[in-house]
User: What shape does this take?
Amino acid sequence: MGNEIIDRMQAEETLRESELRLRTIFDTSSAGIIIVDTEGRITQANQRMTELFACPLESMIGTPYPAFVHPDETPGGSRYHASDDGEYCDTIYTERHYLRRDGSDFWGYISGRRMVGSNGEFTGLLGIISDITDRKRAEEELRWKTALLEAQVEISLDGILVVDSHGQRILTNQRLLTMWKVPQEIRNQKSDEALLQYVAGNTKNPDQFLEKVMYLYDHQDENQPG
Assistant: This one.
């Protein structure tokens, strides 16, 4: 009897320590953590989640999760817990546009998992949301700069070929293709080899042309702006 009491006390102590560790992780996580019930209402949230949603904890509890999803999301984007056929998803990993309580917005990456009770019954979902706004802005800026570069290349009076470090064509403007009357089958190839050989074959000194191209490839730093 005494051993059973000791074992039970040890099990209870182990459980308390485990709960304390989980609570510490929950409260100090750099990502927002929420738990929603079977109806999609938020039942728990950590401090970081209140910061991301700019909403006090007491106001967040009981609020439907879709209330924090940006209106520009598709109808399916605001549905955190159900798939298209109405069944609950086991996991979800996706980017999502969110709306804060103060009217501002941010982009988050949500990792969600379905939770079940000891009897296998669905009890809710756990979601971990990381702020990826800076990354999304950087991606948008890169897309804008790329579009601007492509526009500048296309209106250039010079023929322009841009390749990566492996000789794969990244960009070729229409001026180059038209000026050298490049055949369609060569235009469709990603490698620069066929294009360079074709263009070189139409120059007065093919070897000198290719030698100059290879020199530029091997001395890219010399062509960088200072």
In short: The beta strands are 32-36, 42-45, 91-99, 105-116, 122-131, 161-163, 169-172. The radius of gyration is 29 Å.
